[in-house]
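pasting for ref. prot 1 ->
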Amino acid sequence: MGESSSDFLVTGMDPAIAVVLGFLAFVAALALQLRARRYNAWLYWFAVVMVGVFGTMAADVMHVALGVPYPVSTAFYALTLAAVFVVWQRVEGTLSIHAVDTTRRELFYWAAVVATFAMGTALGDLTAYTLHLGYAASAALFAVLILVPAAGYRLGWNPILCFWTAYVLTRPLGASIADWMGKPRDSSGLGLGDGPVVAVLGLAIVALVAYLAVTKSDVQQGESADAPDPALR
């Protein structure tokens, strides 16, 4: 949804205004999440959605406005993500999301998520445009790659490594699927349009988050949904 929402906003209004609005919404969503003393599915997933939208804009600005090639922007955000992980590990001693129980650790988490979404956007564009794979082939590539950490987890690989590898790959996978559905046929898409894709995926997210809010199935067994700072558990 972040990919299509960003493209829809940037093409529907002045790009500079769209980026500013996206940044303000991102800051507001993150502020609400960080101020929440108890886990709230709506607040958490609103923050994730806005990270997706602004992360896409951050990656696109580097290419469209600054003329940075996709390989360079992908490498830049990959190094940024690696730096976040290195500092997070050295400061906190773990990258486990099950240990995100302080504000500082949550800030590290969101920094990693923002870098992930920006890098994933650039990476998806790299495979689709620079490598000329197109959207469908790019989606298929990342769908195969995301099976690697899934299989590795079953084989006993480090669970934290498997989680973050899979998390990083969800972004180029999702972005490639969204572009494939929304972009014109002459650009290897289905031509459905960014607006309809945003509407369908937005409704899907609302329905899924409503389910989580009601069932609380995203809260670990043995943990209270009213416990402080459990949003990332």
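and prot 2 ->
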Amino acid sequence: MIDSHIDIPWNEKTAEGLPCWHKRDQADVAMRDVERRFTVPKAQAGGMGVACLAAYTPQAGLDDAGHEAAWQRARAMLEAMEEMVPLHLSGQAVLCRRVPDIRRATEAGQVALVPVMENGYPLADDPARIGYLARRHGVRYMTLTHNGHNLLADSAVVRQGPAEVHGGLSALGREVIGEMNRHGVLVDVSHASRKTMMQAVDASSVPVFASHSCVRALCDHPRNLDDGQLDALKASGGLIQITAMGPFLRRGGGGTLKDFVEHVLYVARRIGVEHVGISSDFDGGGGIEGWQDASETHHVSEALAVAGLDAGEIRAICGENMLRLLQRAEDKISKCQT
């Protein structure tokens, strides 16, 4: 069972409105009876074998102060993930950079933690930072945007300012996608505008994916993917990871596990079981009736079985599709190095 998007608790911004880089103690990741929705004991209880932990950076000003604070924050969060295992999770979890590492960890009964990034904002105007993040921290995917446009691309949700700035990807964004492909960092189009998403499919030499999004035909939210976008994902070999975020599952919120399964089935029927997976967005706003925290993850596979999917289809949706996509990105690294 792979959950492709989980946040780690962290202060949002400083008093000055900059992304907060001050480290938050992560000791509660090793505890069961805590408010945090994802912890390793909860994951073990729910049968979640792999958790993609996101270094999330909120959008702030496109100036030197904002970009520097964002870069400090991203590195601090990734360092906090690295420190989790030796400080709090020895013998229970492993930080994993590659698919073989993930498989070894889960076969040994340990939870595989995979570092990822939410928002390309910390890159500023320096595409070389992708190589640093991949080599130093093992980052495996990055969302191009969050809520607000950055230097790379336009966002699906804009809280202030114009509806679009770049008309999709900027020239810098296209260059960054090239670097992501070269270093095995998957292009994540969750939070991206429709134009950004469709252009990213064309720009990337590795299939793109949406790490935590839902279906717009079932819930008309700007963060969700419409049928044309789903078709583009299929054509590219990509993947959408349906997320347990109530407002994306049902307009106005209140989404349940039943709604979640309906979104999964919609994608499976339209573009195929091999193009859909699962994510919770735990500790980033996710959590629905039937899947409130990581200890209830087994409810997802049970609900998919009740919906009529067979064991092979459930394995694909709950993990193998995501592993296959990660492997595609790793294969691209090998080609770039030869």
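Residues 93 and 148 are 34 Å apart (CA to CA).
Residues 2-337 form a domain with the TIM Barrel fold (CATH 3.20.20.140).
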